[in-house]
Amino acid sequence: MARLCIADPPYLGRAVRWYGPGGCGNGRGEGQADNHPEASIWDDPERHRQLVVDLESSFDGWAIAMSVHSLSTYLRVIETDSRNGIRVCVWDKGNAVTSGNRITNVWEPVVVRVPQDRKGWKSELERTTDVLHCAAPRKNFVGSKPLEWTNWALDLMGYKEGDEVTDLFHGSGAVTRALSQMRMF
């Protein structure tokens, strides 16, 4: 049994704007689960670096969702090396909403730590790719992930029946839904 964690924190520099008081998501539509008064702490790069330290000390494997703009913040505290189980993976959303930037961002990095006993090709686990091609949902709230994303993150970590999975930011309930559906098969 392994202790696994999925962390999908408010993205660096976007927390108050998207989720917190006065943010554009505040009070709009149903499912605004991530509207919380402490959202502003996630606009501090140090809080994201501390998240990595916390995950390393508490879990065997983990996955962190982030924006492309915050990847360098995370990599300052994560040494990426396939031998230590750390991988930078790609979620190709494909259906990105255009912004004020000239370059439209259609992908998001996901940094994953694979538990030591689950990273080798001789494992009984099925192989999976480090790229997911899946559209972002257009419902719910900003930042929610589709079921395919959650299943992919669990596959990357080598999820097995009986593993303890923690969802640190359980706003949409996607991790709970994914786990309940996996147990049906």
Give a description of the structure.
This protein has 5 helices and 6 strands, in the order βααβαβββαβα. By secondary structure, it is of the alpha/beta class. 31% of the residues are buried. The chain is globular. Strands 5-3-4-2-1-6 form a 6-stranded mixed β-sheet, sandwiched between helices. Helix 4 packs across helix 5.
**How widely separated are the two ends?**
19 Å
* CATH class division: Alpha Beta
CATH topology: Rossmann fold
> How many independent structural domains?
1
Low-confidence stretches: 26-34
Number of helices: 5
Which of globular, elongated, flat, extended, rod-shaped describes the shape?
globular
Q: Approximately what portion of the residues adopt beta-strand conformation?
A: 15-25%
Instruction: Please state the structural category.
Output: alpha/beta
The CATH superfamily turns out to be Vaccinia Virus protein VP39
